[in-house]
Design brief:
Layout (H helix, E strand, L loop, with lengths): L1 E6 L5 H14 L4 E5 L4 H7 L5 H10 L1 E4 L13 H8 L4 E7 L12 E7 L9 E3 L7 E3 L5 H17 L4 E6 L7 H15 L4 E6 H10 L6 E4 L1 H14 L7 E5 L4 E5 L16 H13 L3 H17 L5 H7 L6 H18 L1
Parallel strand pairs: 1-2, 1-3, 3-12, 5-10, 8-9, 8-10
Antiparallel strand pairs: 4-5, 4-11, 6-7, 11-12
Helix pairs in contact: 1-9, 1-12, 5-6, 7-8, 9-10, 10-12
Length: about 350
């Protein structure tokens, strides 16, 4: 039995995590969950949003499933999520975005993977005011060649392993010549070694323009930290809702799986949050630990429920003009279909 760290999270986190466990139980996933708390809940209980037992649990288990976390103001952390990535050297963030039939969107041919750098760039938080009146400030965009090299190498390996035909580097090397320039250099070096996949590099503004007008042009996109964060929002909009966008934080030794969205405090506790992104994140986790068949069953079950349109939460139902169901009800329907698929397999 595989032991995995489980962090319920804040806001809608516990609701969508519990919904996800229903689906995993339905397909008899053999996982021993080690539950620990981080974020606001941990801060209120222990005075620390990232207690040592959370770090030690992930160190032991190597893999974690995490609900969205809130970083309380005054807790001593800029971001708990960013801190976790840096502690465990999770340098690659993977966000697969795919059109799901039944969900009204402008495009029906979207099937792309975004790979975002996870531990460097502007998000290291190295910024300060240059004068006591805070009229002038500076932020440092730190990037290292070793990290650029391993990110690019990972992106090519991941793309090839998932039978992708093309990989695109999104950058701004024409202006950010040292940082983006270095990332581009490593991309072009790796591209020259590869003959199994088409490689191209594009300026980030051109990538955004093409994503909005012709998203099917892209297969795999690899980019730096902040650009990747922004592109995550773009691709979430293209597929209809951030509620179906999962995320995986990957390093050489550790991996943490989560949603691409936040805690959504405005709807927390109402039982209306879409659990799909969390459920799909669990599918990424299953694939990571070798349970690919069950991961695919989950993906197909989510797809069928959304296509069916009768058991979907408010964010989707409002687009379909149907009556929404609760987080729990949507998860139960996904679990039901997943169970049927398991029995048929």
């Amino acid at each position: 039995m595989k032991r995995v760290t489980l962090i319920p999270g804040d806001g809608i986190g516990p609701e969508i995590v519990n919904a996800t466990l229903k689906v995993l139980d339905a397909i008899e996933v053999d996982i021993d969950w080690e539950v620990v708390n981080a974020g606001r809940k941990a801060y209120e209980e222990e005075g620390n949003p990232l207690p040592e037992d959370v770090i030690e649990s992930i160190r032991r288990n190597k893999v974690a499933l995490k609900g969205p976390l809130e970083t309380p103001i005054g807790s001593g952390y800029r971001s708990v999520n960013v801190t976790l990535r840096r502690i465990f050297d999770l340098y690659a963030i993977i966000r697969p975005a795919k059109y799901i039939p039944g969900l009204p969107t402008r495009y029906t041919d979207i099937d792309l993977i975004l790979i975002r750098e996870g531990i460097e760039g502007l998000y290291i938080g190295a910024e300060c005011s240059l004068d006591p009146y805070k009229h002038h400030s500076i932020s440092i965009r730190y990037m290292s060649r070793d990290n650029c090299k391993r990110l690019i190498s990972f992106a090519f390996r991941y793309a090839i392993a998932h039978n992708r035909k093309k990989i695109t580097l999104a950058h701004k090397a024409n202006i950010l010549k040292e940082t983006c320039g270095m990332l581009r250099e490593e991309f072009l070096k790796e591209a020259r070694k590869q003959d199994r996949i088409l490689a191209e590099d594009m300026l980030i503004d051109s990538v955004v323009a093409e994503l909005i007008s012709r998203p099917s042009k892209f297969d795999v996109i690899v980019t730096s930290n902040m650009f990747g964060d922004i592109l995550s929002g773009v691709i979430a909009g293209l597929i209809g809702t951030v509620g179906i966008l999962p995320s995986a934080n990957i390093g050489n030794e550790y991996a943490i799986f989560e949603t691409a969205h936040g805690t959504a405090p405005d709807i927390a506790g109402k039982g209306i949050a879409n659990p799909s992104a969390m459920i799909l994140a669990s599918a990424m986790l299953l694939e990571h630990i070798g349970l690919t068949e069950k991961a695919n069953i989950i993906r197909e079950a989510v797809k069928e429920v959304i296509k069916e349109g009768k058991y979907v939460t408010l964010d989707i139902a409002s687009k379909l003009g149907t009556t929404p169901v609760s987080t729990s009800k949507m998860a139960e329907r996904i679990a039901e279909i997943a169970r049927q698929k398991l029995e048929e397999s």
